[in-house]
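quick one
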Amino acid sequence: MKVLKFGGTSVGGVEPVRTIVGVVREMEDRGERVALVISAMGGVTNDLLEMGSLAEEGKDFSPLLRQMESRHLELIQALLPVRKQNAAIMPLKIYFNELEELLDGVKAVGERSPRTRDHIAAYGELCSTLVISRILGQYYGCVRFQDSREWIHTDSNFGNARVDFDKTNLRIRGAVHAVPEALWCVTGYIASNEKGQTTTLGRGGSDYTAAILGAALDSEQIQIWTDVNGFMTADPKMVRRAISLTEISYTEAMELSYFGARVIYPPTMIPVFLKKVPVLVKNTFNPDFPGTVIRDKTLTNGSLIRGISSINEVTLVNVEGGGMIGKTGFSGRLFSLLAREGINIILITQASSEHSITFAVSPGDAARARILIEKEFELELLTQKIERPTLEQDLALMAVVGEHMKKTHGLSGKLFSALGRNGVNVAAIAQGSSEFNISVAIQRKDLSKALNAVHDAFFIHAQKTLHIFYLGVGHIGRTLLAQIHSHEEALLRNNSLRLRVMGITNTRKMIFSEDGIPLSNWQEALQAGGETAGLGDFVRRMKAMNLPNSVFIDNSASPEVVQWYEEIFRANISVVTCNKIGNSGSYDQYRRFREAVRKYGVDFFYETNVGAGLPIISTLRDLLVSGDRIIRIEAILSGTISYIFNHFTGDASFHDVVRQAQQLGYTEPDPRDDLSGRDFMRKMLILARDSGYPLEPEEVVIEQILPPSCLEAESIGDFYRELHRSESHFGRLKEQAVAKGKVLRFIGCLDQGAVTIGLKEVDASHPFYSLSGSDNIISFTTERYSNCPLVIKGPGAGAEVTAAGVFADLVKVGAVGYQ
Ligand code: ASP
Ligand code: MG
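structure w/ magnesium ion:
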């Protein structure tokens, strides 16, 4: 026999009841025997309790009563043929009369005991089950409506009664075996004590009724029909990427249900666990979805944990004092006090120094807990053996749960690095020795970020998401967005990495979207929906969104943007940029960036600061971290300068080559901006600093190519005239080189911590001799690459390759975050 339980929403309206009928008929047609356990229609139990309290206060409860009545009548009218309706309405009317009498009684005496409260609440299940049994009765000859008060026997703890399984099991078995052909429709939630008075099994207790039935009858399966797709890896309202679980163990179901999304009433697990009855959780609103099976032996799902649960609001109570050290009985007194007073403790931790005990309670209990402790330990407080308990408010609790967590190492490391990396501070930690659960108390404002970060870290099958905040949509910025757009699907497919652009700004406008900005039409979105841009506003909004794995991309060349980097790092947001102003300003600033990056555990990637997309910074980093030592770096890191000297051969005059470079668009509007070597200087400075030399910009020596007359020329026209006049100077330099079989190259050189940039003659054995076009080139002479340097060569400018370099850095942020 299978026991099928239908929850409040599943019987809450005509459509879901139709589904129920379909499900039952299909099973019956297959020849399966079923018993149903039915909850009150959704919201009805709350309404009944509300009616009770209105009555107690002498207020009018009848509108709620009428509403409840009409909801039930509606089901009858919609799902029963007219000629059968009256027979169903009659007994229903009797229930409503009884209920009304009961409520009138409460109103008359102005008092409602827990016993009466349960009695009133029982009518929810009585009415719904009656109606469903009549609806099913039109298809089957032997449908039995069963008031579970006749079957389930409990103590007199009204509101949360304890079941006497011996008596209960006997009654259930006796009744069911006496009528083997019956289709049972049993009320959930309600039971009775030895005097026959109505008791209830706790809110949500219909699940428990189903478990009691299933265990008593040795059912092959219990089905819990509810309004979600079974258990998920996390609460889908908080974690959008939460995925459904096909199977979980009894313990996991219990752990996941205690915290957060209540898929199932936790006590339900006890009877089914003892009898090892599998429980299938199904969705009435999506009946084809396979749902979750709760069973004894489960396989791992490829992740170290099964799921993450959370409680939105807790307060930590901290009891501290030297008087507790080594004293037995202290925590015994403390916790029995709280138990006696009905204060539920959600989590406990005690440091091994025994100097403090911290526990979490619902915020509503915190103040009372403190007062109770102060009373109980008055003497200890007076003699200063302990201090006044302190409360830490606005916290939330998050727990990772899984039976396979046991004896697995690396798990808590992963958990805490995901939290740490995203700047989530942990206020308390608890791990049961069962190792099924690690719980952490964190700031409530960080809960969503923490859940998402931890979810991403553990569920490798789920996607990892980078939340991108994007500054600068000039040539490079536009190109990068286009690259991301065309590659995002492949990244998701092949690397399980999802890139979501949450904010975009240029100097005029900015937009944000909680759902991510669609990259197919970001231009229109920015134009149409954008607000007036402001750098400070952009940073504030980015911080306020408080998303895990956030990355700020700076595509500008602006010194103002750089001023915000530290604040951005402090908000645990990584920075990826092609803007070299940040790294080539004062050394102090360079150092502060690194300090912040280390302190807040974020990434700062800037491969494109030097040689665009060429892997120069990363190569240097790899050499250093693997223990190599830089002896010398030589480089040509300006495409313009590269072009000019690569073409200043044969008969060409220097003047003509510069003009040609300008005509081809290789130079700045004023070619002197390139020829002065300032930009080149910045790149050399970054390389020197990354190699470990604390240089200031002024310390880089630039030997000018241009004679003073050219540098001082007023206009660009004058500059070219002066250049023409200086032709003999350049010609001489070239001839001298040629005479020695050499060529001229403008080279930056880092040698023993000193950086010089100047004109050099190189022979055919030098790697820069045969440089062509406008390529950049760099050679690393290191301890390991000592005879033959490591050389990187290729295009060192251009929107495509620069954007690609920024893109690669961005993906690296994703990679590091999940190690
Ligand atoms: N109707 C009861 C409640 O709302 C029991 C249940 O639905 O499981 O708590
Ligand atoms: Mg580069």
